[in-house]
Amino acid sequence: MKRILPFAFLALLALLPGAASAREAAPTAQDVVVEKRMVAISEELRCLVCQNESLSGSQADLAKDLRREIREQIQEGRSDQEILDFMVGRYGDFVRYRPPLKGTTLMLWFGPFALLLVGVVVLVTYLRRRNRRVAETRAALSPEDQQKIDALLGRNDAGQKP
Q: For 140-160, what is each residue's pLDDT tens digit?
C-alpha cells in the first residue's frame, strides 16, 4: 500500500492541469436543422476579431454573438441571402470570405497582382540600369586596369572565370 500511494499522488497531480482548464460544456443545438444552416452561413463569413478564421471556427466573443444573431434570424424565418445581406450591411464586404467583385473591392481582388507587376517592373528597370552602368564603367577603364581587375578576379583573357 505504501508503494502505491506515491504513484496515486503523482497521478492526481498529473490530472490537476486538465481540471483547472475545464469549462462548462457548450449547450448542444436545440434544432439540428437551424444549427446546420447557421454553420453553413457562418462558414461564408469572416471573424472580425481573428480575420483569418471563419465565423464558425472562431472562439472570439464577437464571433459567438454573431453566431447567436444568425441563429435568431434563422428562427425568425429569414433566408440565407437575407442573413448574409444583413451582415454585409452591418459590417461591410470585409465580413465575407469571398466578397463580390465590384468597384469598392477591386483592390482587394486585383491589388496583390498589381503589386507583383509593379515589383517586377521596378526590378527589371533596376537591373537594366545597373547593367548599363557596369558596361559604361568597364568601357571607361583602360586595358591595363581591366587586366589588373581580371587578374584579381582570377579571370583569363576572355573575361571568363577559369
A: 888 888 888 889 988 865 545
The number of beta carbons lying within 10 Å of the beta carbon of residue 150 is 16
Cell of 36: 446546420
Report how far residue 111's alpha carbon sits from residue 107's, in angstroms, rounded to the nearest whole number: 4
Integer CA distances (angstroms), 51 to 45, 56, 110, in order: 10, 12, 19
Neighbours of 27 (CB within 10 A): 6
**128 is written with which cell numbers?**
537594366
Among residues 105, 91, 110, 106, the alpha carbon closest in space to that of 45 is found at 91
Q: What is the largest CA-CA distance in the chain?
A: 96
Residue type present at position 93: D
Are the C-beta atoms of residues 45 and 66 closer than 8 Å to each other? Answer: yes
Radius of gyration from C-alpha coordinates of the chain? 33
